[in-house]
Amino acid sequence: MPLRLIEVFAPPGHADRIAAIAQRFKALNCWTDTAPAGGAEGSTPVQTSRIVARPEHQQELIDQLQGALGKGKPWRITIMPIEATIPELEQPQEERRTPEQTTREELYAAIDRGARVDSTFLELVALSTLVAAIGLFENATTLVIAGMLIAPLLGPNIAMAFGSTLGDRELVVRGILANAAGIALSVACAAVAGRILPVDDSSLALISRTQLGYDAILLALASGAAGALSLTTQLPSTLTGVMVAVALLPPAATLGYMLGTVQLKLAAGAAALLAVNLVCVNLSAQLVFVAKGIKPRTWLDRRAAHQSTKISLAITGSLLAILVAVIYWQKGQP
């Protein structure tokens, strides 16, 4: 059930305004109580309002609450999904057909976690690259898939697309840095593995990642769109993370091996495939966020985000057009 419990912690005096907002957006319940912030003498009282919000109005309700509370005294809003209620809520037929939509704040928290470069992220990248590289070297599809199951490459790419949609430069930069760190580490690990492990240079799994084609574009576009949809509709992101890893991990590992063995022509092919996939994943993910109506709360922020979105889509669209032209040119070569 896509209901959410929204708790508002604020100084006393906001109860009527919060109740009016809850009523305007057809909340199921809204109640308020006031208690001291802590046990210490003279502590500031805190007013706690709890709202059971319907799915179709949650984002608007949260936006209005933020505007009503303003930038003065400290306040906090927490958002929690409701798994079930007793008695069970009778939902209109059209509401039952509405997919669960994640609020912007929940999306930001989840995506921000995925864009952090920490020891766990780097360890997972290194391990996934090693497993996938062995699979590529031995033409073992099972091992390649196992490596993609481990790879944490969904987060940084979705962070880049989401940050561009909201006009959040800090999130975009974090996504770029995390992506660069992950891919650089993957390439380096594959280069080292290629130098110390026996490799079948005729491996179909390896050679296929040095060839650029239109199918790679379609795969990467589908991967990015699926990754964004999994977050906005609260679907499991494990399989979509694998899809993104399909587009990024094998080409990165292949690039590392080809560079490590100084096969520069094949390395260029793997690099081109990796570039196509990066562009397509971010382009399709951003288009999904735009289609889902993801945008900042205030008018000024929306204006800046609109400009950021146009610039980002123009850049990724132009890069994709150039890469498609390269593929077309390569297809025409004897």
Structure description:
The protein has 2 domains: 4-96, Alpha-Beta Plaits (2-Layer Sandwich); 104-331, no CATH class. The model has no long low-confidence stretch (mean pLDDT 82). A hairpin with an 8-residue loop joins strand 2 (29-36) and strand 3 (45-53). Helix 7 runs antiparallel to helix 8 (169-196) and helix 8 crosses helix 11. It is built from 13 helices and 4 strands. Helices cover 64% and strands 9% of the residues. The longest helix has 33 residues, at 299-331. By secondary structure, it is of the alpha+beta class. A 4-stranded antiparallel sheet has the order 2-3-1-4, with helices on one face.
- Summed over residues and divided by their number, the pLDDT gives a mean of 82
* Main beta sheet: 4 strands, antiparallel
Globally, the shape reads elongated
List SSEs in N-to-C order: EHEEHEHHHHHHHHHHH
Derived structural class: alpha+beta
Helix content: 55-70%
> What kind of oligomer do you see?
single chain
* Beta content: 5-15%
Count of the domains: 2
**If you compute it from the alpha carbons, what radius of gyration comes out, rounded to the nearest whole angstrom?**
24 Å
Annotation field: number of helices: 13
Distance between the termini: 58 Å
Major sheet: order of its strands? 2-3-1-4
Which regions have little confidence, pLDDT < 50, spanning 5+ residues? Answer: none
Query: How many DSSP-defined strands?
Result: 4
